[in-house]
Amino acid sequence: MENLAVYEGEHRGYMTVDQRQLRNRLRSRGRALGDRLDQHTGAQTIDHVAESAAYEHRTRFLAENHLLHTDEANGTLPVTLEECDWTAFGRRSSAPTTPSAGLRAYPNRR
């Protein structure tokens, strides 16, 4: 989200059309989740959209590595991405079309 300047008021000049469209979708998703837009500067908080993206990436990782299972009461069965409810913050979203599906995950650089 840093490279896409999701929190900034304006897109960066070097961004491609696809990157700008992804940025706009992420900003819109963030506002729907509760991120605040500053009407004067165009800057936006990204707390909610960042948490949603992290949740979706974590779920994808677990499912793709066969580590996502139902609870013990339901038999501890493997769950696929298609079977996921994708409920985050009490809102339903569809995994393949969420804006964060376009984000690439990078390891922490510490």
Please provide a brief summary of the model.
The protein has 110 residues and is mainly alpha-helical. The protein contains two helices and two strands; from the N terminus they run ααββ.
The strand line-up of the biggest sheet is 1-2
Radius of gyration: 16 Å
**Strand proportion:** under 5%
Structure classification:
mainly alpha
Largest sheet: 2 strands, antiparallel
- Helix and strand string, N-terminal first? HHEE
Shape: elongated
Helicity level, as a percent range?
25-40%
**Count of helical regions:** 2
The average pLDDT is 80
- What is the count of structural domains? 1
Total beta strands: 2
Whole-Å distance between the termini?
A: 18 Å
List the uncertain runs.
Answer: 88-97, 106-110
Topology at a glance:
Layout (H helix, E strand, L loop, with lengths): L16 H17 L13 H18 L22 E2 L2 E2 L18
Antiparallel strand pairs: 1-2
Helix pairs in contact: 1-2
Description:
By secondary structure, the protein is mostly helical. It has one domain. The chain is built from two helices and two strands, in the order ααββ. Strands 1-2 form a two-stranded antiparallel ribbon. Strand 1 and strand 2 form a beta hairpin. Helix 1 packs across helix 2. The two termini are 18 Å apart.
